[in-house]
Specification:
Distance between the termini: 11 Å
Shape: globular
Helix content: 40-55%
CATH class of the largest domain: Alpha Beta
Oligomer: single chain
Mean pLDDT: 92
Radius of gyration: 22 Å
Number of helices: 14
Order of helices and strands: HEHHEEEHEHHEHEHHEHHEEEHEHEH
CATH topology of the largest domain: Aminopeptidase
Length: about 400
């Protein structure tokens, strides 16, 4: 498929999804405004009160947002939507200067629900967006997007900006971005993979029955191999202190694997561990994250860190003890045991989140595509950059 055809198809599918999410309450009544950062305690009260009526992902819960704010110490502007004084929509906007192409392109950028600092934003927010009351739905999201894209920054209390950065957003937000009237640049996409636990439960079949014959064989062979060291088991961290210890062990295994391959690893920046120790401290007591130690007898197979929200389980991060035998696949065994555990507990879906790791599509099925978007105001340098990008794409051919 040609690149242009792919973009048209994404746009058509996205607009279709927006249209189905009809709001039962008139979002036109909402009053939108940019407000200064009220302080983390007040914002936490605002956010917590809206969470209860919003159909939002874990990444838009206060566990994540509050930890990000507390550890980064940023003071973002707050996009608010109110109806009769009642808060019905929120979004955080942090301004930062981005440099590209050796500093030739400098962009004053607004980041949605991020810090604007690469050393902090490598925690990789997913299923990002505005936090909105579900009764107002996509119509309110569209109004909030249009408000940012169509308003003169000074008139609403923002500094001048060139790009609005939306990281880890759904196809719905891609459609809203296109509808905003600004130029939209897709800097990257990420395919997710997931296991529909509810469908498996309804079918009466086992999780392994739904895998390909080849994957099923590899999982069973690895499970038998590890089983020679002892019974396969999962230890669940029962306290914040134990969960922090599991996170440290996970990080050590994770970093060892990636640094041996010349990659920095997710925990290369100290912010990653600091933020997630805080996430764990607030979310673990409420059963909204879990840290798992997967083992065969006394032998460690690996550690898993999962996010949990309303029957959804997100495989956020892992660390495995890789043996010399390539047939002993610790990830396959660890996730097989974890998925079966959540299937038995009544969870709805197990989401491997975005990434191109082979095991995700082997153990799950293709899910939603997430986008990293720049909404660009009319700037000469950005237009020149886009033209050069398109020229380079045409020179590479349709498959580029």
């Amino acid at each position: 498929m040609a690149a242009g055809e792919g973009h048209r198809r994404v746009r058509e599918e996205s607009i279709s999804r927006v249209e189905v999410r009809t709001a039962p309450v008139d979002a036109g009544r909402a009053v939108l405004a940019i407000e200064p950062f009220p302080g983390i305690e007040v914002l936490g009260e605002w956010w917590g009160s809206l969470e209860t009526s919003a159909a939002a992902s874990f990444f838009l819960q206060w566990h994540w947002i509050g930890a990000m704010l507390a550890e980064s110490k940023i003071a973002p502007f707050v996009l608010t939507a109110r109806d009769g004084g009642r808060l019905i929509g929120l979004g955080l906007l942090k301004s930062a200067l981005r440099r590209r192409h050796g500093g030739l392109v400098r962009s004053r950028t607004l980041f949605l629900n991020e810090t604007g600092d690469p050393a902090c934003d490598n925690v990789f927010i997913e299923y990002n967006g505005f936090l909105v009351d579900r009764a107002y739905g996509a119509a309110l999201e569209q109004r909030m997007m249009a408000f940012l894209a169509g308003s003169d920054p000074a008139s609403i209390g923002l500094a001048e900006w060139d790009e609005l950065r939306l990281d880890g957003v759904s196809q719905v937000y891609h459609a809203l971005a296109v509808a905003s009237g600004l130029a939209v640049h897709i800097s990257a996409t990420g395919a997710t993979a997931r296991v529909d636990l509810q469908a498996i439960s309804d079918s009466g079949r086992s999780y392994l029955d739904g895998l390909s014959a080849n994957t099923r064989q590899q999982v069973r062979r690895a499970a038998r191999g590890f089983g020679e060291s002892g019974a396969l088991a999962i230890d669940v961290a029962g306290s914040v202190k134990e969960a922090h210890a599991f996170l440290d062990a996970l990080a050590a295994l994770h970093q060892s694997y990636w640094t041996k391959r010349g990659r920095p690893g997710a925990f290369a920046e100290p912010f990653m561990a600091r933020m997630h120790r805080r996430v764990i401290a607030t979310a673990l007591p409420r059963g909204e994250v879990e840290l798992l130690h997967v083992r065969a007898g006394a032998r460690t197979i690996g550690y898993l860190y999962n996010l949990i929200h309303d029957g959804w389980v997100g495989a956020y991060c892992s660390g495995f003890a890789y043996p010399d035998d390539p047939k002993l696949k610790p990830g396959y065994v660890a996730y097989m045991l974890c998925i079966e555990r959540h299937l038995a507990s009544g969870s709805r879906v197990f989401d491997f989140l975005a990434g191109d790791d082979r095991y995700k599509t082997s153990l799950g099925k293709s899910g939603e595509t997430l986008f990293h978007l720049d909404l660009q105001r009319p700037r000469l340098m950005l237009k020149l950059e886009a033209r050069l990008r398109n020229l380079r794409r045409r020179m590479r051919g349709p498959s580029a």
